[in-house]
Amino acid sequence: MAGFVRHRRSKRIIATMSGFEADLLRSLAAQLVELLRNEAAVPSENADPLEALFEGGDFAGPTTEPDDPVLARLFPNAYQDDGEAASEFRRYTESTLRDGKARAAATIIDALEDAGLPSEPGSEELTIDVELDLPTAEVWMRALTDLRLALGTRLGVEEGDEDYWYALPDDDPRGQAHHIYEWLGYLQETLVHAVTA
């Protein structure tokens, strides 16, 4: 894959992907959507009864940091030194933030399928051209950031640990997952350049 480029005439942002790359990206985005949506936000036991009337609204958010390390990375505490303020902030914002991140990841899936990738996996032989307008490209940038954060957190990637990853044998699944992490970084970088060109 050559990464994203900006078409001079149409100003659209284009990338040519193999079916394997597109399937992989779709799978990662679908896993992120599932993670974000399956961890349903539940009101705390001490919720105000009046707020309970607004089920599904902004009042229904969680008040504690998620147990899952990926979700904790995607939704860090807003106030490190004030647990009560962090809890209140999370309560009123996390549900909306989750929905926004899930919608952004779903935008990747939709764009890949709109570009001709069949909705079912198994199209490795295809080559598709993904074309994005500027607003959609900006959504993709946010979603790619979330995908990299999620994968990097699962792998335990740290700043300056490249030698560790490059020393792993080719058949080590952690090394293969790290290659995907780097590939997502490449996609993100070329997309940023294409958007700002």
TrEMBL record:
Pfam families: DUF2017 (PF09438). It comes from the Bacteria. This is DUF2017 domain-containing protein. It comes from Nocardioides silvaticus.
